[in-house]
Amino acid sequence: MKKTIILLYTCNALLMACQNKPQEAKAPVAVVADTVTNTVELTPEQIKNGDIQTGAVTVKTMHSLLRVNGVVDVPPQNVVSVSMPLGGYLKTMKLLPGMPISKGQVLATLEDPQYIQLQQDYLMAKSKLRYLEADYLRQKELNESKANSDKVFQQAKSEYEGQKVTASALREKLQLININPDKLSDASITKSASIYAPISGFVTKVNVNTGRYVSPTDVLFELINPADLHLSLTVFQKDLPYLAEDQQIICYPVNNPDEKYTATIHLITRNVDESRSSEVHCHFNKYDKKLVPGMFMNAEIELNNAHTLAVPEGAVVKWQNKNYVFVADSKKTFTMTPVETGTTYDGYTEIKTDLAGKTLVTKNAYTLLMQLKNSGEEE
What we know:
Elements: H1 2-20, E1 39-41, H2 44-49, E2 53-55, E3 58-73, E4 79-82, E5 88-93, E6 100-101, E7 106-111, H3 113-144, H4 150-176, E8 192-196, E9 201-206, E10 213-214, E11 221-224, E12 230-236, E13 248-253, E14 261-268, E15 277-284, E16 296-312, E17 317-319, E18 322-328, E19 333-338, E20 341-345, E21 348-351, E22 360-363, H5 365-378
Antiparallel strand pairs: 1-19, 2-22, 3-12, 3-16, 4-11, 5-7, 5-10, 6-9, 7-8, 9-11, 12-15, 13-14, 13-16, 14-15, 16-21, 17-18, 18-19, 20-21
Keywords: Transport
Domain CzcB-like C-terminal circularly permuted SH3-like: 309-368
Pfam families: CzcB_C (PF25975)
């Protein structure tokens, strides 16, 4: 028990001694300034010595280069979906996607009993028409001489004209399945009907196989005529006023920028979609078989004497691969603001970012950049 009391007394004595010992002065804690800032403040003397000048974004007439993208396409009239109006069983077909075809070439042959029936109906209607025509002419002659009644003549005339309609309708149906009614006779009735290529070009799709029954709504093949290939470009609304028909462009495939093609603006779509862009159709000046529908391409359009928003070159600074300008918050405070720039021409740089109503540093902006970054490092 005595040992415990002595130990407590010793600890209390040491504690009191420590409390009575003069405390050492603490070193001041350094406050680290926030160096991540885009605002710089200059004195009037610094502004004068650095020749810092301010101004607004101005409209300049300058040569600029508009870069857009698009896709190789063909007009709707050059794309043909082939079907058989009356359906049938596919007997022969030797087509593959990409195969060249010529207009009038046999693409496939179909068979069906209805083809036979249609030819039979037409030949019988044609035969009956000859009889009714002769009877009509006979009754007409008798009626003119008052040898028969008007009722008999009108009946003969009605039957003759009705049969003409029937024969004409059957004739059109035969032509739908590419059977020539003028060459049809009882000795030439066939169970087959051929499908001929309506255009020259290439096969893009084959949707059937031999032996399959196809209905009138089935698309058997899709053909394309590349003779009128065009480039469909997507251009934003703000750039449309700078484009005009017959304007020349340079384009190249996305995966091969060195393969240059020239084209001419043919048509500018007069409406803007929900993405605030419009389609511009361009015709290639020279056809190249390397160009195929669906190919993505980039295009460059030189805008001569285009009216663009621009600032002097000295207003734009580059920092970490990004472009900036200094916006004047007051007469001595400036904020570094990121901008999207365009082409540079005749001492001015195009500004695509909306800076309407703002005052910018138009000269010696790099002085502000150095002041901003050096002050940040010193802190």
